[in-house]
Amino acid sequence: FRTDLTYLELPLNLLYKKSTVKGSLFIGGGPAPSFYIGESVFYSGYEGFKKFDVGITVLAGYELPIGFSINLHYTHGLLNITYDRTNFPVIKNRCAGLSVGYLF
Predict the structure, then answer these.
(1) End-to-end Cα separation, the chain, in angstroms
(2) What CA–CA distance (Å, rounded) separates 76 from 20?
(3) Whole-model pTM over 0.90
(4) 72-98, pLDDT tens digit by residue?
(5) Interatomic CA distance for residues 82 and 98, integer angstroms
(6) Backbone angles phi, psi at 61, to 5 degrees
(7) 89 pairs with which residues across the strands?
(8) What per-residue string of b and e applies to 25-61 under the rule 16 or more CB within 10 Å gives b?
(9) Residue 80, Cβ neighbours under 10 Å: how many?
């Protein structure tokens, strides 16, 4: 069995930012609704996956005074996304990532 699922995640985070002379530390989190946009499946008994999921996102990062930032984030899916409860009783989405950015 192999499947590659693609969901578009739209996190709605609230952030707390603590500024210092050397930069700013921020932490946050919130809900993350996700919408199915595609898949690739190789399995004869395939029943399908749900088209909507919702998760909880947490993140932490650091921003330099010149605008560069880096953060780590994790999303934990809350809903069971499978219709095939016989072969796969529970399947949940998970996402972890690293972001690097520049604010101007």
Answers:
(1) 46
(2) 31
(3) no
(4) 999 999 999 888 777 778 888 999 999
(5) 27
(6) -165, 180
(7) none
(8) ebebbeebebebeeeeeeeeeeeebeeebebebbbeb
(9) 15
Q: Which long-range contacts (CB under 8 A, 24 or more apart) does 70-73 make?
A: 70/98, 70/99, 70/100, 70/101, 71/26, 71/98, 71/99, 72/96, 72/97, 72/98, 72/99, 73/11, 73/97, 73/99
- How far is Cα 89 from Cα 9, in angstroms, rounded to an integer? 23
CA atoms within 13 A on the CB side of 42: 3
Under 8 Å CB-to-CB from 18, ≥6 apart: which residues? Answer: 24, 25, 26
Alpha carbons 9 and 17: distance in angstroms, whole number: 23
pLDDT, tens digit, 9 for 90 and up, residues 33-71? 999 887 766 555 556 788 899 999 999 999 999 999 999
Helix then strand then coil, in percent of the chain rounded to 5, is 0, 65, 35
| Helix, strand, or coil (residue 89) | coil
